[in-house]
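User: Please predict the structure of the protein below. I'd like the answer in structure-token form so I can feed it into my own downstream comparison script.

Assistant: Understood. Taking the following sequence of 548 residues as input:
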Amino acid sequence: MERDSSDDDDDRETLIHQNDTKHDDHHLPSSDHHPSTFDIQHSPSSRQRLRFVFNKRFLFAIFLPLFIVLVYFSAGIRSLFSENVSSFTFDSVTDRMRESELRALSLLKQQQSQLFALWNQSFYNNTDTTPFFRDAKSALLNQISINKQIQQVLLSPHQNSNLSENGDTIGSNFGLETCRKADSVVANKRTIEWKPKSDKFLFAICLSGQMSNHLICLEKHMFFAALLGRVLVIPSYKVDYQFSKVLDIEHINDCLGRKVVVSFEEFAEMRKNHVNIDRFLCYFSSPQPCYIDDEHIKKLKHQLGVSVGKIENAWKEDIKKPSKKTVQDVEAKFKTDDDVIAIGDVFFANVEQEWVVQPGGPIAHKCKTLIEPSKIIMITAQRFVQTFLGSNFIALHFRRHGFLKFCNAKKPSCFYPIPQAADCITRVIERTNAPVIYLSTDAAESETGLLQSLVVMNGKTVPLVQRPPRNSAEKWDALLYRHQVEDDAQVEAMLDKTICALSNVFIGASGSTFTEDILRLRKDWRLASVCDEYLCQGEEPNFIAGDE
């Protein structure tokens, strides 16, 4: 999850100070000098000769600087100093060091031009996604970044001179185009029409993980409902999250032009409060049928008044090793004449994944995406961006809480020391030239404070912006207060997602479904960038703690 920045300074051909000349102090004889015993007395004639010699030296001292100035302007010594510095021999260590710096910068510029040429010829606009190509692309961008960092180090003592003779800066693109929008056009896109029978329902059940997992589960339930020709029943807030606070449910129906989803309350009213699940056909059989526990069954019965029929497995399927399934597999096992069916939690289901990951999803509709934030959250996010971030910003999902143990169980680990994370973030900044970063995180202030101090570009700290506490003088979040959802944790989480999705470039946390939902929104909204990546993508942490 390489870089260029217009804020950098290019190498200056003026590294060598053109006015760096050394002057010797000349002490002239004093007119008050008294002869000592060892002084040689001169005759009047000899004094006249001395006075003549002295006058010649005085005239020479006056006219020599004038002569140098005339030659400077007539012969173009400035260009000699700047362009042909290698032809001069410097006596001082300082001058020799400056000459070496200029030669090093010249070589770095040559290397930089060749790296940019290689990028533009071989990598830019190349859609190859093989691991080798991805690694080679990452390595090339890393070398471009290192090249620029070396130039900055060499130029750091000479920051008073901001431009080279040709006016270029280190941050200029040199024809390197990196962070363009990703191509969202899908050739031969495969979709299915969702035309449900009005009296046939699929009862959605989502239990695994937190809100982001439930949204992914809900999206997959929509695909199943479309395949089976059923209306999808959104879970009640009494047994699940209150989806109506974060999602625009009617937006889904509007996009399809028909009633395809209903709330549990609507469903109960349609069924005249005779709410029952006629058949439980479990997609997953292990670790337990339908991946549903007895506690949830009790909630369905006692809190919602839902009568539950017999629970049976459609096939043998384990959430730890989900197998690939096709449309035909699903239709063969789950099509039934029962009015209301449930198939359990399908978060881990792997059905026609190529369809599911298409921009806009696998269902035919007239909108960009079906599952998106409510209008209140969308407008609030846009107002926040207009107030604090502007059109060019990076968004960073920096997951930390509970992530250390989770990541270290993976190979390779996805939990990075903060200095290493800061280096990775800085490389993205170089590519995007973004002046600010939106930070979505659960990290402690001690971690975010250290991260902020280390994210530096051209000697300047790049601000990490988080949503501030409520301030009545600020109006960007007024809608949340007007609708009394300002302190809702799920609303705040969806607001964070939406702000991140609106960024120019997004840096996510590998293994996080929060990140995956942001990437889905960016893809569906056609906002994804070729620079979107996971934090320190392709790298391993430079230090990993041992197991417990």
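That's the full token string. The radius of gyration is 35 Å.
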